[in-house]
Design a protein that fits this description.
Layout: H1 15-28, H2 40-47, H3 51-63, E1 67-70, E2 74-77, H4 82-106, H5 109-128, H6 131-148, H7 152-173, H8 179-194, H9 198-226
Antiparallel strand pairs: 1-2
Helix pairs in contact: 1-3, 2-3, 4-7, 4-8, 4-9, 5-6, 5-8, 6-7, 7-9, 8-9
Keywords: DNA-binding, Transcription, Transcription regulation
Pfam families: FCD, GntR
Protein name: GntR family transcriptional regulator
Length: 228
Amino acid sequence: MQDNLQVKMDEFLPLRDVVFNTLRQAILTGELKPGERLMEIHLANRLGVSRTPIREAIRKLELEGLVTMIPRRGAEVAQITEKSMNDVLEVRRALDALCVELACDRITKEELESLKQACDNFELAVKTKDVKKIAQADVALHDIIVQATGNSRLIQLVNNLSEQMYRYRFEYIKDISQHERLVEEHRIIYQGIVDQDKETASLAAKLHIDNQKKAIIRQIRLEREKNK
């Protein structure tokens, strides 16, 4: 268990939701690692809460696919497998391509300015080498494109995938060797939208996901070799 895992209290949220959000964030950012056991008593003591909100949080995390129940072992952080990653990225690839194509037609001048700023912010975040900051800047950039579609159902679909996506994106961003490539891909997507060039923007969005997929598969296989 990481020493920096702690509950961030929120006066507007019930304790069970605060505990759930704390554990989910720890899983998404890798503070709680794939395969790590989630023992109710240990987590309750660590977070200074009773076992009830821990139990409720684990149940919700299982429904989200972030926790797996193992017979005779209990709850574990779900592994990042090639199958689970493929399932998420396959859908996200299609949705991202659709988002940039619609954004080419529908993005407003203000949103375009925000997207340019988001690209600049991402480059600044990369220079910090702070993985959390880079991931947040990446999410913010993609959110602008999604919102620019003006399609509420599409926005909902992308948001539903966002938590799972964040976990894979975080794994990718941890690989410093990929940072310059990410910056370049964002530039191409941005320019494609500026030029209303749907083909270029769509191809760049798909390549963005394809490169992410290749890099994470490399990491999964390296991890598997290490654990043999």
